[in-house]
Amino acid sequence: MSTEVPGTGPAGPTGPSPGALLLCRAVPESVALAARLLSEPMLLTGAGDTWSVLVPEGRPWRYGGEPVDRVLTGWATALAVGAPWPVLALWWDADRAGYTLASGFRRPVGYVWLANGTPAGEDEAMRTFAARLGLDPVLDVQALDDLTEADPGADAPARLRALLAVLTRAGVSLPAGLAPGEPADRLRELAGARPDTRAVERPGWPEAVRTGLDALDGSRLAPWMPWSGTSRSRALALAQVATGLPLTVWGVRRRSAGRIVAGLLLLGQGMAGVAYELMRPRD
Predict the structure, then answer these.
(1) What residue ranges do the domains of the chain occupy?
(2) Is-contact 104 81, C-beta < 8 A?
(3) What is the mean pLDDT of the chain?
(4) How far is residue 175 CA from its own chain's centroid?
(5) What is the tens place of the pLDDT at every residue in 7-23?
(6) Terminus-to-terminus CA distance in the chain, angstroms?
(7) Which of 238, 221, 229 has the alpha carbon at shortest distance from 274?
(8) Cβ contacts of 185 within 8 Å, gap of 6 or more
(9) Residue 31 to residues 146, 198, 199, 274, Cα–Cα distance (Å)
(10) Cα–Cα distances in Å, from 122 out to 1, 59, 110, 136, 145?
């Protein structure tokens, strides 16, 4: 069965206001470099010893009419393809709530619950989620399986809070108050009150290029980078162009800001790789 993330529609008149969190399995210093490429104002703070959380301002869904799940899927994908750590997007609106896990170039996996907590995803997605995060194949998977069963006493935000409870065993510890169901303004107010919170601002294009290189340099992706001069770097550059161009076009047609960002990021990195390959001196 497919593990693709189901889409959602615009928020309805009842239920919680749209909100979102981006959990990254990396320390804030590493996340800050990659997050600037999204060109979205965000607040960044720690969420455990090995996790960080990004709190977006939310302009695409608050003012642009974008469905919050599509935006978050695009952002998570863009962050994950440019970094050696996974990204977990949590989102909610008046109709639904869910998560998207992105890691590298693998297809994102996610699950959705209706506003009243009714499961609307596929069980296989939960097991894939657990495997990619290295969760306990017995205890954690059982707890995740419980989230795919009907529970009249748990609404959609409660389902996400239960998911986060499972992730505490993987080191996730969200700051107090940063909880699913809260509106974007409240999340930013709480995050901004923490002394270790930093603002992630939009860089200029020259700085964005340097930021992207700094985020990738020295990681396990280094052999795939343009300056390595390997066959893998050439193959990656071509794959990024081949993937980024249609993704950008598709995002423009669907007016999906998240997918446009992901497509442009892939396209920019791919074109940089192709240009480097064409210009570098030959032996």
Answers:
(1) 19-199, 221-279
(2) yes
(3) 80
(4) 18
(5) 444 434 456 789 999 99
(6) 49
(7) 238
(8) none
(9) 32, 11, 12, 26
(10) 8, 30, 9, 19, 10
Quote the tokens at residue 197. Answer: 């919170």
pLDDT in tens, 179-224: 999 988 999 999 999 999 999 876 544 444 444 444 444 444 444 4
Bridge partners (DSSP) listed for residue 44 = 54, 198
Write the secondary structure of the chain as one string of H (helix), E (strand) and C (coil).
CCCCCCCCCCCCCCCCCCEEEEEECCCHHHHHHHHHHHCCCEEEEECCCCCEEEEECCHHHHCCCCCHHHHHHHHHHHHHHCCCCCEEEEEECCCEEEEEEECCCCCCEEEEEECCCCECCCHHHHHHHHHHHCCCCCHHHHHHHHCCCCCCCCCHHHHHHHHHHHHHHHCCCCCCCCCCCCCHHHHHHHHHCCCCCEEECCCCHHHHHHHHHHHHCCCCCHHHCHHHCCHHHHHHHHHHHHHHHHHHHHHHHHCCHHHHHHHHHHHHHHHHHHHHHHHCCCC
Q: Which long-range contacts (CB under 8 A, 24 or more apart) does 104-108 make?
A: 104/80, 105/81, 105/239, 106/132, 107/3, 107/4, 108/4, 108/5, 108/73, 108/76, 108/77, 108/80
